[in-house]
Write a structure and sequence with these properties.
By secondary structure, this protein is of the alpha/beta class. Helices cover about 50% and strands about 10% of the residues. The strands form four sheets. The protein has an eight-stranded mixed β-sheet, with helices on both faces. Helix 6 (about 170-180) packs antiparallel against helix 10 (about 260-270) and helix 10 (about 260-270) runs antiparallel to helix 11. The longest helix is centred in the first third of the chain and has 23 residues, at about 85-110. The mean pLDDT is about 95.
């Protein structure tokens, strides 16, 4: 029998090798067709007396990333369609769909033939759950091996047996840590946790897997044998008496109760370890069905799984323009930002010329990459040879003529129009026809900068976020004259450096910085009102933000905030800002000399390590303080979320953001906007425009006109519309 996605070969020893290699895909993923073929393979190998055991592996450089995007989308869409007809039937249907993969893996596990999973690269989600259902697991020791159950990061949890098998192999504490954080494991760490049996050299992977079967691997899972006990003795032990009362409290401290899937993991493990394995699978199936119906799961999967993949694969790339294989990129400005851009470019295998005013400054910029390479080698992420090769691709220079054959040049010089004007003119004097010029400005409008260009159609913005090597997002900004080729090249470059792009139209602060400034501005208002600083920071984190606004302002730099306020006044007039904010930030910078983390003094004090940062004690003396019991923490949380969501809605109304996927992904990846909401626009869609408008109006009455809902939101509320309905991101594709 032949298969589309698998090959099946049986050797002279009676060991079947099942190789998963989906045609036309860079990575294997689970689809309905894949599961049907795997079901058939289980039947065939079980029925064939000549087959003594099965080795399951991948024909690609990675094992599998788990479930396919289209399968996830179809599950949600079929549930919504069925729910409109019969909610009860919809839940029953969803329960059946949820149990399909788990049932398939259980069928494999109880087939009576030993199966060994040979893990040769990334093995995530359902792919690792399949591996856990195999009786043996062998992993390569290659650095490319990453083993994880990361579902909690997209609002769900391991629902194909993961919550039942992992805590029956590893101790419960390690199992909970792995699943509630979605952390990746190396092969050796997985072995230490008892999740894989062997870690071998890559060329020994299949021989070692086959040898396990030859050595008499039992075709029975440990939990199916009489007398099985979970590691540590299960739930009713002294160790568990310490773990389980604390676990929900620790989880609440880390998540503020915002992630239903994380809590469901605790329930699945706690309840599942008290019952037979098959009953545990039913418990998991029940909770998974429940979680899939939550707003958090729908929104997170849409933004952090589906939309991120679509944007990363070029959803906004203009059609009909050939892909650009970048052979040479120039970076002008060897400060920390420019040097970091050069690093990620070289890490993608692209030669870079790093330009600065003199060779000493350019060479100093390269030392940033040298430090990053040294750190990566120390952590085992790069070999010495790989690090040397990366650094060899960065050529410091003070001569613009070295950009004469560049495909793309990115300027990352000071946020000063005159400085940028000089760079644009110097670069264009040598840049070849058809090459693209990009500005990494974070605040200056691209169209204004493009006025200094002789070829504005080839001029675009590519806004990076710091630290460049860690932040996943880039904003690609279109000037009024930017052409399709410039956009295509910019998106090809962003794809090459493995970041997620959002495409926005030109405006002051673009999208992310506009939202970030609103987040920080709200904290200024709260300080001025007398809200205790610790409550401001804690309320923001309780709302789902990874960093409090005061801590974030320190990272951004308070003196930069002052420059932005002054530039706004210079360009737009005094009424464009709140004078109280100017007074606060001016005092912090000019009177107190507190610039943020960079000079170890900001809203926080930063003592030498290992001491931790702490809020500046005098901060609470700047304004009369309210008693803590007079401050409603829930209102503080609402203010942070609503002010950012309103700003995101304004960018849509102004035509800055035209695709709701980009507002949602940009708000989460750009500054960590409460991921459980699915992003700033999904936060509005999730509660409904009508409820959001009512909440905004209530906050406007109490805290100021900046909370007033926009005409667009009022219109959407009246019509019962959503952003994803009114601004359908798939309409372009449908029209085409």
């Amino acid at each position: 029998m032949t298969y589309t996605n698998f090959t099946l070969e049986t050797d002279a020893d009676g060991i079947a090798l099942v190789t998963w290699d989906m045609p036309g895909k860079s990575m294997n993923v689970f689809t309905a067709e894949v599961m049907a073929e795997l079901d058939s393979i289980i039947d065939v190998t079980t029925a064939d007396a000549a087959v003594k055991g099965v080795v399951f592996t991948s024909g690609k450089s990675s094992f599998s990333g788990g479930a396919d995007l289209s399968m996830i989308k179809s599950m949600f869409s079929s549930y919504q369609e069925e729910k409109a007809k019969s909610p009860e039937t919809a839940v029953q249907t969803l329960f059946g769909l949820v149990g399909r993969m788990s049932g398939l893996f259980r069928k494999l596990e109880t087939s009576g033939k030993p199966w060994v999973s040979a893990i040769n690269g990334t093995c995530m989600g359902g792919a690792f759950e399949l591996s856990l259902a195999c009786h043996g697991r062998v992993a390569s020791n290659a650095k490319s091996v990453k083993i994880a159950l990361p579902e909690v990061k997209v609002g769900i949890f391991p629902g194909a047996g993961g919550t039942q098998r992992v805590p029956r192999l590893a101790n419960a504490q390690d199992a909970l840590q792995m699943m509630t954080t979605g952390q990746s494991l190396t092969g050796s760490r997985a072995k230490a946790m008892n999740l894989v049996h062997q870690v071998v050299e890559p060329d020994q992977l299949i021989p070692a897997a086959k040898q396990m079967i030859k050595d008499g691997l039992k075709p029975v899972a440990p939990w199916d044998e009489k007398g099985f006990k979970a590691p540590g003795g299960g739930i009713w032990t002294p160790a568990s008496a310490q773990l389980w009362p604390a676990a929900p409290a620790i989880l609440r401290r880390e998540t503020s109760g915002n992630y239903p899937a994380a809590l469901a993991i605790l329930k699945c493990v706690y309840e599942g370890l008290q019952v037979p394995f098959d009953t545990g699978l039913k418990i998991e199936q029940r909770y998974f069905t429940e979680v899939l119906q939550t707003r958090e799961a729908f929104s997170m999967i849409r933004s952090l799984f589906i939309s991120m993949q679509e944007l990363g694969k070029g959803a906004r790339r203009p059609a009909g323009i050939p892909k650009t294989e970048l052979k040479h990129v120039g970076v002008v400005g060897a400060g920390f930002m420019g040097a970091s851009i050069a690093y990620v470019t070289a890490a993608a295998g692209i030669p870079v010329t790093l330009i600065d005013r003199d060779i000493e400054a350019a060479t100093k910029g390269k030392t940033v990459s040298e430090g990053l390479v040294k750190d990566s080698i120390g952590k085992g992420r790069l070999t010495q040879d790989d690090g040397a090769a990366l650094l060899s691709r960065i050529a410091p220079s003070a001569d613009y003529a070295d950009l004469a054959n560049a495909d793309l040049v990115i300027e990352a010089v000071f946020e000063d129009r005159e400085v940028k004007k000089a760079v644009i003119e110097a670069v264009e004097a040598v840049l070849p026809e058809g090459a693209i010029f990009a500005s990494n400005t974070s605040t200056l409008p691209i169209s204004g900068l493009a006025k200094n260009s002789k070829r504005p159609t080839d001029f675009i913005g590519i806004h990076f976020f710091s630290p460049v090597e860690k932040m996943m997002l880039t904003e690609v900004i279109l000037g009024v004259e930017t052409g399709d080729k410039a956009l295509a090249v910019a998106l090809d470059y962003v794809a090459a450096i493995k970041k997620t792009p959002i495409v926005v139209n030109d405006t002051r602060g673009f999208f992310v910085n506009r939202c970030v400034l609103r987040y920080m501005s709200e904290s200024y208002d709260m300080l001025i009102e007398g809200v205790p600083p610790a409550m401001i920071e804690n309320a923001a984190k309780m709302a789902g933000m990874p960093v409090g606004p005061l801590a974030l302002n320190d990272e951004v730099a308070i003196d930069l905030s002052l420059k932005i306020l002054k530039a706004t006044v210079a360009d737009l007039g005094e009424k464009a800002i709140d004078p109280r904010h100017m007074e606060l930030i001016s005092r912090m910078v000019e009177k107190e000399g507190r610039f943020g983390r960079k000079n170890s003094k900001g809203f926080y004090d930063y003592p030498p390590k290992p001491a931790k940062k702490s809020l500046w004690p005098d901060l609470k003396t700047l304004y009369p303080q309210k008693p803590a019991d007079e401050v409603d923490v829930n209102v503080l949380k609402q203010r942070f979320l609503v002010t950012v969501a309103l700003e995101a809605a304004r960018t849509v109304e102004e035509g800055i953001v035209t695709d709701p996927r980009e507002a949602d992904v940009g708000s989460i990846l750009g500054f960590g906007f409460a991921p459980y909401t699915g992003g700033a626009l999904s936060y509005i869609d999730g509660m409904g425009a009508k409820a959001f408008v009512e909440l905004a109006e209530k906050l406007a009455t109490a805290y100021g006109d900046h909370f007033k809902p926009t005409p667009l939101l009022k219109d959407m509320a009246a019509k019962g519309e959503t952003f994803y309905g009114r601004f359908d991101p798939y309409a372009r594709a449908k029209a085409a």
